[in-house]
Amino acid sequence: MLNKKAGVEKDESSDLIYGIDDTPDIVTTTVLGFQNVITSFGGLVAVPLVIAGMAGFGVTDTAYLVSAALLVSGIVSIIQSKGIGPKFFRVGAGLPTIMGTDFAFVGPAASVIATGGIAAYFGGTMLASLLELGMSYFIKPLMKFFPPVVTGSVIALMGMTLMSVAMEWAAGGLGSATYGAPLNLAIAVIVFLIIVLINHYAGKKFAPLAVLLGAAIGYFICIPLGMVDFQQVRDASWFALPQLFKYGISFKLEYALPFLTGYLVTIIETVGVMQTLGQVTKTELKDEDIAAGVRADAVGSWIGPLFGSGPTATFSQNAGLIPMTRNASRKVAIAAGFIMILMSLFPKFATLVSIMPMPVLGGAGLLMFGNVAAAGIQSLSRVKFNNRNMLIVAGALAVGLGVSFRPEVTAGLPAFLGGLFSSGISAGTIVALLLNIILKEQQETVEIQEAV
């Protein structure tokens, strides 16, 4: 069946409870949307907190940057999940996607903010996003370099590189005074098991809610254990409106250049995420759908600074929710976008979610990211593992995981190369692409002897 709205073909043999075009009832849609928000919340607020520290902001301005990030993430998530605009400038792949600020831009942000302040950061990222916008029109010819052996490797690598993030959450979060404490690990294990059992035994009605229910139970377990600080909720404002150009915007080429590498990395990672989403939603993507997904990143990165947020990128975390909860409805992702917009207007509610103990997220994250890795392995199972393909998969995983485990090895590279290889996902993808080009297919010759 052809999905006319997104231009994608859906696999009717899918075991998904909710497919791309399905519309769950309003309560289910809202609850599943909120589930998407809480699983990505750490990533949504982490970058604005770091940027606020670089800019020397106090509590009030820091809270505003977080609210602005939620607002923009909500707007761009709706655009990416729905897909808008005419064919020649379609923005958004039409797949269930959560968008947010990305760490690829944090490195160059430090030097730009130190030179020109927060206005230079906003102006520089807006100008540099034009590169991604232009590159989105060249995605189609580039896609011939992404055969199944490359895409399967990238999808598997995406899940594997995120495992360390989930483990850090399970241990209590990097820098935590109780990092690795048995109590933290016990909470993560409990949440992990609750999600597994609900997902497997609860049936079609509650299985899609497994992550939300597991996180909620884990959250409540942590309250009497003294792991939740409600003082932050009491200190937060009840209501806050967004403001255009609150901190100004400074357009100078010198501020844009440091961010170009970040956008190249984002393009590579977004292509990988789009392919992952196609795999887990049982959807056959066209090249123009992936291009529209990249374009949504660029448009979001132009919108963000207007409200005081950084550039946006397609989040990979939520792709793990889809195979686990068997929910691929774009309506749910759109609902998540509206929830993020509402949370940006009511800081107390956003804070209530943000104080969720990290081990709770860790227990959920392990399963979600594991599902992404499993989807990549499933994709690779359809690839013929001859010598050439083995080398491509081995090289991509080795370099990608190596950089993920030891990111400091790229610190001595020139700035441009250091930026491209700063992420395990981008590093592994680049290696897979290069090996796919360098290693030519060897034709097997068979000699047929005829009996005389």
UniProtKB/TrEMBL annotation:
Gene Ontology cellular component terms for the protein in this record: plasma membrane
Pfam families tied to this protein: Xan_ur_permease (PF00860)
GO molecular function annotation: xanthine transmembrane transporter activity
Subcellular location: Cell membrane
Lineage: superkingdom: Bacteria
Keyword Transmembrane: yes
Keywords carried by this UniProt record: Cell membrane, Membrane, Transmembrane, Transmembrane helix, Transport
Entry membrane topology: Multi-pass membrane protein
Chief subcellular location: membrane
InterPro entries noted in UniProt: NCS2, UacT-like, Xan_ur_permease
Transmembrane domains' residue ranges: 37-57, 63-81, 112-133, 145-167, 179-199, 206-228, 255-277, 332-350, 356-377, 389-407, 413-439
Annotated family: Belongs to the nucleobase:cation symporter-2 (NCS2) (TC 2.A.40) family.
PANTHER family in alphabetical order: PURINE PERMEASE C1399.01C-RELATED
Protein name: Purine permease
